[in-house]
Design goal:
This protein is of the alpha/beta class and 580 residues long. It has three domains: 17-146, Beta-Lactamase, CATH 3.30.450; 156-306, Alpha-Beta Plaits (2-Layer Sandwich); 318-577, EAL domain (TIM Barrel, Alpha-Beta Barrel). The strands form four sheets. Strands 14, 15, 16, 17, 18, 19, 20, 21, 22 and 23 form a ten-stranded mixed β-sheet that branches. Strands 1-3-2-6-5-4 form a six-stranded antiparallel β-sheet, sandwiched between helices. Strand 2 and strand 3 (48-51) form a beta hairpin. Helix 1 packs antiparallel against helix 5 (133-146) and helix 7 (187-194) runs antiparallel to helix 8 (196-213). The longest helix has 20 residues, at 308-327. The radius of gyration is 31 Å and the shape is elongated.
Length: 580
């Protein structure tokens, strides 16, 4: 899209020429139209984005949005000029650069300064009228007021203005405006593990990918932290918003390489349309936010368009949140215990699995309410309760049996986990060796060093530590090197199709060999058939867990299960005995 020949040459990213009626743009537009300065602004690819009308008068056809800086100033290809220019571009202070000239030509110099998303140039010809520092400052400030310093995208303030305008312009030829809220998945982990510098680089690279996915009539903003937004105008909807969302999700499929490390960070997107889902900015943002939340809960790395049913789900979640606060004191939480079996058939312990019996809804699985408890800061207290209950329950079993308790990453945050665990085993009077704590890799991802310290202290106390759901997250082998896990639990994902999938078989075999090589015991989770059990036993898997060997049981039923266990006898195990 080209600016009018006589008008102000302002174009922003891949959006249409900007309507210069807005506050920040208006000032910039006014300045560019009327200034006697030969001002031009360039993006990080050295492409022209904004320019003073007078510049076009002087250089004519070379001055078009998107033109490379050296098409307007060939002198920048000269080594000395280029070096000086690159110094400013890479964050150096503003500088005045003398341009090379042929004999008889008047001296020419340019003032080059960094902007939020590239570089600005003010040319002062041998015409006496040098740009005043004040004017230069004015231009820089205007740009900064509307752009995000880190990524160079338009900022939150501009986003608010543009959204309001987009909604006001709806009707007639522009029936709909689409708002896409984009949130990076796992950004926090990158910040926590690789540091804030890497986090900043990631945001810059992410902004670049978003910018590259845009077409005419689409403009991108950095809204907050790792939240971005795109406003789409004058398009066929919902097709065009869905197409763009698809390209944005795909744009995040390849890893970002940060300091030589490939980092996978997906994007989740919520889409809402004005006026359908909101006639003012706030309403529309809320709708897009709810859709974004749905995208996150639907597995992330995907896009969802707002619909009313999402509101209902959100209300339900709000209700759950409220009632979860009192669930513990009302005695609605309880624990089931799933047997852990050493082949051929000995019960060696149980894993404690938390449940919530909601008075109206019924039984709610932990996958639903634990994330809410974590987000609401309730998991520390709930986790402590589970630990104590499970240890007390274990005292009712023969003293050779262990109890495994899952720990949530949130329990590591308080910093007092080791004290809590030590106090509980002391108060309950259970031997530390009988307790096994299960963690997932997310615990190791967050605040890695502190958490490894915590695990080491727990280990020193004699408590066993297992790595749960192995194979589903990063499965980084460095964890196995840096921490002496007692047990590695292979996720059900690889067990489910063991009978038919050669790849799963190879993966499971390799995990077993790897763990054994490191002196770590292996448990297979989610064993549902006799064939799976037999295969695992043949491959020397140390322990099996799953509905085929024993479903999670109420506390009272565990005693019966142990009594019926074959080594100390049991009918439930007879079938597995036969097949194993
Ligand atoms: P997990 O620790 O991997 O627990 C195993 C899950 O697999 C349990 O789901 C169990 O019921 C299920 N399972 C066991 N055998 C089979 C099988 O043969 N087939 C199938 N389809 N599923 C099987 P559950 O109880 O829904 O727990 C889900 C997750 O919630 C647990 O995964 C654990 O990460 C978490 N969780 C449970 N209780 C607690 C708790 O007290 N604290 C924390 N922080 N997390 C907990
Ligand atoms: Mg577990
Ligand atoms: Mg598991």
């Amino acid at each position: 899209m080209r600016p009018e020949a006589s008008g102000v040459g302002i174009e922003n990213e891949k959006s249409s020429p900007i309507d210069v009626s807005r506050a920040g743009e208006a000032l910039l537009a006014d300045l560019l139209a009327n200034t006697t300065e030969l001002l031009s602004l360039y993006d990080r690819d050295f492409r022209l984005t904004h320019y003073a009308a007078r510049l076009k008068g002087l250089y004519g056809g070379a001055v078009v949005p998107g033109a490379a800086i050296w098409e307007i100033y060939p002198s920048f290809l000269d080594t000395r000029c280029r070096d000086e220019f690159l110094r400013v571009f890479q964050g150096g202070s503003a500088a005045s650069i003398e341009l090379p000239r042929s004999s008889g030509e008047a001296p020419r110099s340019v003032f080059v300064f960094g902007t939020a998303d590239g570089v600005g140039v003010i040319e002062s010809q041998g015409r006496g009228g040098r740009s005043t520092a004040e004017e230069q400052e004015h231009v820089i400030l205007l740009h900064q007021a509307t752009h995000d310093v880190l990524t160079g995208l338009q900022n939150r303030r501009r986003f608010g203005e543009r959204l309001q305008e987009a909604l006001a312009a709806i009707g007639g030829p522009k029936p709909k405006a689409a708002l896409l809220q984009i949130d990076l998945d796992d950004f926090k982990s990158v910040n926590d593990t690789l540091g804030h510098g890497a986090g900043d680089t990631l945001l810059q690279l992410a902004a670049g990918r978003i910018r590259d996915a845009l077409q005419d009539g689409e403009s991108a903003y950095r809204y907050a932290g790792d939240e971005f937004a795109v406003i789409q105008l004058g398009k066929e909807q919902p097709m065009e918003a869905e197409r763009l969302a698809g390209s944005l999700v795909n744009a995040f499929k390849d890893p970002f390489v940060i300091n030589g490390i490939p980092v996978f960070v997906g994007s989740s997107i919520g889409i809402a349309f004005g006026p359908e889902h909101g006639t003012d900015g706030e309403q529309l943002m809320k709708a897009a936010d709810i859709a974004l939340y749905a995208a996150k809960t639907d597995g992330r790395g995907c896009a969802r368009t707002f619909n009313r049913a999402m509101l209902l789900l959100l209300e339900q979640r709000e209700n759950l949140r409220r009632s979860l606060r009192t669930a513990l004191e009302r005695g609605e939480l309880y624990i089931e215990y799933q047997p852990l079996i050493r082949p051929p058939s000995s019960v060696i312990g149980f894993e404690a699995l938390l449940r919530w019996r909601h008075p109206e809804i019924g039984i709610i699985p932990p996958g639903v309410f634990i994330p809410i408890a974590e987000a609401d800061g309730l998991m520390d207290e709930i986790g402590r309760w589970v630990l104590e209950q499970a240890c007390r329950q274990a005292l009712t079993w023969p003293s050779s049996l262990t109890v495994a308790v899952n720990l949530s990453p949130a329990q590591f945050l308080s910093g007092s986990l080791t004290d809590t665990v030590a106090q509980i085993i002391d108060a309950v009077g259970i031997r530390a060796e009988r307790l096994e704590l299960e963690i997932t890799e997310t615990v190791l991802l967050e605040k890695t060093i502190d958490n490894i310290d915590t695990l080491n202290t727990l280990n020193v106390l004699g408590i066993r530590i297992s790595l749960d759901d192995f194979g589903t997250y990063y499965s980084s082998l460095s964890y196995l090197k840096n921490f002496p896990f007692d047990t590695l639990k292979i996720d059900q994902y690889f067990i489910t199709d063991l009978e038919t999938d050669l790849k799963s078989q190879t993966i499971v075999q390799s995990i077993i060999n790897l763990a054994h090589g490191l002196g770590i015991s292996v448990t297979a989770e989610g064993v549902e058939t006799s064939a799976q059990a037999r295969w695992l036993v043949e491959e020397n898997c140390d322990c099996l867990q799953g509905n085929f060997l024993g479903r999670p049981l109420g506390a009272d039923a565990t005693g019966d299960f142990i009594r019926r266990s074959p080594s100390k006898e049991g009918r439930a195990m007879e079938e597995s005995n036969r097949v194993l």
